[in-house]
Structures are given as C-alpha cells and as structure tokens.
Write a structure and sequence with these properties.
Layout (H helix, E strand, L loop, with lengths): L2 E5 L5 H18 L8 H9 L5 E10 L2 E11 L6 E8 L8 H15 L4 E8 L10 H8 L3 E12 L5 H14 L3 E7 L7 H14 L14 H14 L2 E9 L4 E10 L6 E9 L8 H16 L5 E7 L3 H10 L2 E12 L1
Parallel strand pairs: 4-5, 10-11
Antiparallel strand pairs: 1-2, 2-3, 3-4, 5-12, 6-11, 6-12, 7-8, 8-9, 9-10
The protein binds acetyl coenzyme *A.
The site of acetyl coenzyme *A has 23 residues, from helix 1, strand 4, helix 3, strand 5 and helix 4.
Amino acid sequence: MGIAVIPLDPADQTAVDEAYRIGAAVEAADLPDFPPYCRRRFEGMVRHPMPGIAAHWALARLDGEPAGWLRLFLPQLDNTENASAELRVHPEYRRRGVGRALHEHGLRVLREAGRKRVVASVADNLPGAPERESPGPAFAAAVGAHPALADVRSRLDVTARDQRRLDALLADARAAAAGYRIVRWRQHTPEEYVADVAYLEGRMVTDAPTGDLQWEQEQIDADRIRGTERALDARGVRHYSVGAVHEASGRLVAWSMLSLAANTTWHAWQQSTIVDPEHRGHRLGRLAKIENLEHVLAYEPGLRAIDTYNAADNAHMIAINEQLGFRPVDGSTDWQLTL
Ligand code: ACO
C-alpha cells in the first residue's frame, strides 16, 4: 500500500484521535521532560485556529497505519508570503519516507497559496550537552532548509527556588520602578488594557532577536487579542498575567504571561514578556516576571517547573531568567526554507 497523505478533516474524530496519538508518541520519545501531551489543546489547535491564521493539516498513513502528520499555519493579516510548519512522524515509522512525503504535500499546498518561505522549530541538543537522538535537524537539512534562529529552552525548578534571593530581586525591581503600578489578571485581559496588550504583542516578534528569520511585525489589535483568548479557552489553557501600568499616562507598558495546559498542574510555559521600548531600564521585565511567579503560585500550588524559550542571543532576557533561577536544558532552532 505504501505511503498515502490526505488532508485531515477537523470534523473527522477518528483521524483527529490518530493524529493526537502520533503527537503524544513523538513528544514522549523526543522530549521526555515535557508535560504530558494535552488532548484538549491538540483538538483545540485542530478545530479553533488562532485568529488571522489559516490552518492546513494532513495525515500520513504507511501501509494503512497512521504514521505522521503535518500542520501548516498560513498567516492572513500579515506575513502573507510566509508560513510555519510542524511535522511529526511516529517513532516506529521513521526513516521510511513518511516525513519526506508529508513535506512534499506541504510544499504543494504552500506553493498553491503563493507562500515564499516556511519556518519550523526543531528541537536539538545544547552545544556540549550529552548527545541525544535528534533527527529533526538532519531532516530539515535534508529538505534544503537553513538554520535561521537558535533558541535555548531554560527551566526553573520551582521547588528549588531561592525565595530570599527572589524577594531581594523583587524589592530592588520595585525600587527602580517608581511611577509604575502592578496589575494582575487571569484568563481574559481587562478591557482597559486590551489595546495596550495588542500593541505590546504586535511588537513581540520583531523586538526580540530574530536572527536570519524573515518574519514581519504582526498586525495585532484588540479584536485579535480577544480571538486569541477564545482560542486559548477552547484549548482549556489556564493563563496568568502581570502588567505594569505607567501611572502618569495610565497605559499598560509591560506584560508577562504564564500558561498551563488543561491536563497538568505541575508545569507551566513562560509566554511573552515584553516592555514598551520607551519604558525600558526600570526593571519592569524582572518585576513582571517575579510578580507573576507569585501570582501563579497563589492559584497553582502544585507547580514544579516552568519552561521558557529565548533566542540564544537575547542576553537581556536570559540574564533576567538566570537571576530567577532558570537553567538551560536544550536547544531549538528555527529552520527556514525558501520555496
Ligand atoms: N538521522 C539522519 N538523517 C535523518 C534522520 C536521522 N535520524 N531522520 C531523517 N533524516 C533525513 C535523511 O536524509 C532522510 O533521507 P534518507 O532516509 O533517504 O537518508 C530524510 O531526512 C527523509 O527522511 P524520512 O524517512 O522522510 O523522515 P521521517 O519519516 O523519519 O521523519 C522527522 C523525520 C519528521 C524529523 C521525524 O524524525 C520526527 O517526527 N521527529 C520529531 C519531530 C521533529 O523534529 N520535527 C521537525 C522536522 S522539520 C519540520 O518540522 C519541517
């Protein structure tokens, strides 16, 4: 029978279940320290794409057995020549051409949609770390992609945190942040801050180092933030935010967010942290992060680990993370392919 690649219909529960099981097997094999693969998040991703993004999913069968999947995201409001991809092949079915067949299917879809480049994040080892089987980089190179941005994943062992040090860092940050007040929220952004959050989130991709990635600033407004919140609700994600309000103008000028998947109480992802360029140098980044750690622990007492990705050359953010106790665990590279 060989390899067959067919678009995945989000309404086809059997196919969605098959794709979920592939994703879970891949993550358990390749990223064993990750939190368990979340079914609700996966189904939410398939059925409720983020606003402004068109999704295409395809499932590959090898001799009739579900063996791999490809997910393409095609931005509609900005980056209309770009796309992002995720490709997963079940560990039992690797090195038999499934990855390449999915890749070729993806190329056809992207070319028909007029896209000129595609980017994918591929996990790899930290330089100098003990070797671990890491087929992603070999595959990405084999299909002609180029490494465009190196990221580091760092983890905070929450149970081993140095609370006295954190208290001292927080006091120091508060002293440097006179004229700003802290606000906290869970889930949806309060209406008075949603336009400021949209402004900050829109800067996120271009303010952080982007290496050789060709990715434009994203067009994000308050409606798009609300749409993102609805999509996160559909995934069952719990999220916690801290912002800093500039008292003279009433504007929210710094924001940091942590999220937990529906199926875990022990693990959180550090999402965006951003300070408006006009308000940098007041320790607002550190302040927001430490305040948000306290915030999340008040609701999530079982939290043991927080993971964060940073561009390897984002010295400022990494310095803040190291002060908080984050330590590097592995790497991830954004590979870009020109079509
Ligand atoms: N070591 C060396 N080269 C490799 C390896 C490996 N372990 N795996 C794939 N390749 C290269 C080879 O050149 C191979 O051609 P060959 O077998 O003729 O030598 C070529 O990639 C194509 O291999 P496939 O058999 O088509 O790939 P497979 O079905 O095994 O899937 C994949 C590869 C997707 C990387 C799989 O190992 C996987 O799911 N890994 C975890 C997820 C991941 O890293 N995904 C990112 C991939 S890049 C992206 O997303 C666009």
